[in-house]
Design goal:
Structural class: mainly alpha
Number of strands: 0
Distance between the termini: 45 Å
Strand content: under 5%
Largest sheet: none
Shape: globular
Mean pLDDT: 90
Order of helices and strands: HHHHHH
Helix content: over 70%
């Protein structure tokens, strides 16, 4: 009996879920031990070389277009703002509330996709967003 084949999106999405969950808990502990802005900077100082190392050992293309580079840089800007915001939030608030609200980024992305990028708006997607918001309200109580 062999192992079932796992979709790569599910596989890597699951790794993301677990590692980011651990990241938030450790980030909370770090923010209680040192200034949260310093903790955020240290996190990125470790993550940056890891990402660069992965590029070097994988078959990633090193070709960068102006548009792609700019979009990646702006994405990094928003990532940095979110990272610092999370660490500062963790230093003042509950891990449950900060992590649950932060995890709602997918709702923001879905809304941008539907409103700006022209993704199809369906009852199912609307219901999913509504249930996600209800879930956040319940978890953060």
């Amino acid at each position: 009996m062999g192992f079932p084949e796992i979709d790569s999106a599910v596989f890597f999405g699951s790794i993301t879920m677990v590692t980011w969950g651990i990241w938030v808990v450790l980030g909370n502990a770090a923010s209680e031990s040192i200034d949260p802005r310093t903790a955020a900077a240290i996190s990125y100082l470790v993550a940056g070389p890891l990402a660069l190392g992965y590029i070097l050992v994988s078959d990633a293309s090193l070709a960068v277009t102006a548009k792609g580079g700019l979009l990646a840089a702006v994405a990094g800007l928003f990532t940095g703002i979110g990272l610092i915001s999370m660490y500062v939030g963790l230093s003042d608030g509950s891990t449950t509330v900060v992590s649950t609200l932060g995890a709602m980024y997918f709702v923001v992305a879905a809304l941008i996709g539907m409103v700006i990028l022209g993704d199809e708006v369906t009852i199912t997607r609307f219901a999913g967003i509504a249930f996600a918001i209800i879930g956040v309200v319940l978890v953060s109580q």
